[in-house]
Amino acid sequence: MTESSTPASSALAPETTGAEPTGAAIRRGPFRVGERVQLTDERGRMNTITLEAGGAFHTHKGFLNHDAVIGLPDGSVVTNTAGHQYQALRPLLSDFVLSMPRGAAVVYPKDAGQIVTMADIFPGARVVEAGVGSGALSISLLRGVGDGGYLHSFERRKEFADIARGNVETIFGGPHPAWRISLGDFQEEVVKAEEPGSVDRVVLDMLAPWECLDAVATVLAPGGVWINYVATATQLSRTAEAIRADGRFTEPDAWESMVRGWHLEGLAVRPEHRMVGHTGFLLVTRRLAEGVAPLIRKKRAKTEFSEEDLNAWTPESVGERPVSDRKLRRAARDARAGRQDEA
């Protein structure tokens, strides 16, 4: 079953030429009714508001009229009724991803950046992804492939697809011409939707990517990149061993990234006490030409999984928190509301 975004106009976007990339117009120019603005006070505390004519942002220290922000250039400083100042900026992609409505855990910006770069997501690329979640990675992939590219996203749950669609259309100001989203199991649906060897890149964010070996090998072009995002070391190990045993891919590489901010104040320059540590592992491999055998690694230890291991791959066993249907419906409503605010 396939669901495609339907065209919609955006009240936010000014008149543009046909050459204007999707979503670019609403990222520049003065603040407009319906768009999100990030307000940062003197203490560095942030709040994100959606501008409404006649609206107001209230705190215990006075209120700020939205009309005082509408029409100002990005990067302005505004003052509320009590004299407190705010720095007004458009939220960056990283800000939007971490605050948008969600039903599933999002792919963090640090990992999305790694995926776009290390999977070589280029303008015009044909990409398929599975495990859409709330659409965070889809947004980065769409920015990578551009209007002339192609991204086909597969999601098993309609609720997640609705949330992702709302978030994607919010940040781009409407449907993206390169995006198609389908409901169903990736390994079954992708071989029906995509011609053999027609896909440049495959991106999987799912519990058991090793189950998709045949499907990926079928649709991925020779030399194409397959990148996986998994949460645990046991998932990472089994995926790597399955790829090696399959024989149609190069030797997989795996890594994780960690981000630690720094405190900068005069001579008090030191690492922050908190950091974004482990969020997931990335594992990348490439499709070999048909009939070509992979190079055999020397001194590689053999690894076997017991029947107990093979039956242990459940969301609960790898630490995924169950998401209630009620929470998903609420997140989907919030995502749709964000899309409608900007329509």
From TrEMBL:
Per UniProt, the ranges with Basic and acidic residues bias are 318-343
Q: Which residues form the tRNA (adenine(58)-N(1))-methyltransferase catalytic subunit TRM61 C-terminal domain?
A: 98-263
Q: Where is this region: Disordered?
A: 1-24, 315-343
Q: Which PROSITE patterns match?
A: SAM_TRM61
Name of protein: tRNA (Adenine-N1)-methyltransferase
Question: Could you say which residues form the signal peptide?
Answer: none
Query: Which InterPro entries does the annotation name?
Result: SAM-dependent_MTases_sf, TRM61_C, tRNA_MeTrfase_Gcd14
Q: Which UniProt key words apply to this protein? A: Methyltransferase, S-adenosyl-L-methionine, Transferase, tRNA processing
Q: Which PANTHER family match?
A: TRNA (ADENINE(58)-N(1))-METHYLTRANSFERASE (PTHR12133), TRNA (ADENINE(58)-N(1))-METHYLTRANSFERASE, MITOCHONDRIAL (PTHR12133:SF1)
